[in-house]
Amino acid sequence: MSKSTGILTFVIGTALGVTAGLYLNSEDGRKMRKKTMKRLSKMEADIEERVSKAYDDLKSKISDSTEDMKSAGSHVKAAAADVKDAAGNLKSTMKN
Q1: CB 53 within 8 Å of CB 61
Q2: What are the per-10-residue average pLDDT scores of the chain (96 residues)?
Q3: 29 class by beta-carbon count within 10 Å (0-12 exposed, 13-18 middle, 19+ buried)
């Protein structure tokens, strides 16, 4: 980038910054900032609500899955005991 292009870029950037600063400090600019802050606050509350709901849903699904796994474990344990008993009965029948 040449020196004159750099200076021109600096001058244009400065002019845009001053213009934006003057606008944002005007009555219309203050109204716009206030309106923007309200919108951002609403968006923040909406995001917090969605994240909280998603967290609660996930927590519930994990809890349900844990209970399902415990129940399945109990069923497997009972089935294993039944198989063990059946094997013992078969063994005892085979001896006789």
Answers
A1: no
A2: 83 93 88 93 97 96 92 87 82 74
A3: middle
Residue labelled with tokens 């009555």: 27
Q: At residue 26, what are phi and psi to the nearest 5 degrees?
A: -80, 175
Q: Is 93 helix (H, G, I), strand (E, B) or coil?
A: helix
3-state secondary structure of 2: coil
One-character DSSP codes across 15-83: HHHHHHHHHHHSHHHHHHHHHHHHHHHHHHHHHHHHHHHHHHHHHHHHHHHHHHHHHHHHHHHHHHHHH
In angstroms, the CA 58 to CA 51 distance is: 10
Whether the model pTM is above 0.70: no
**33 within 8 A of 24, measured Cβ to Cβ:** yes
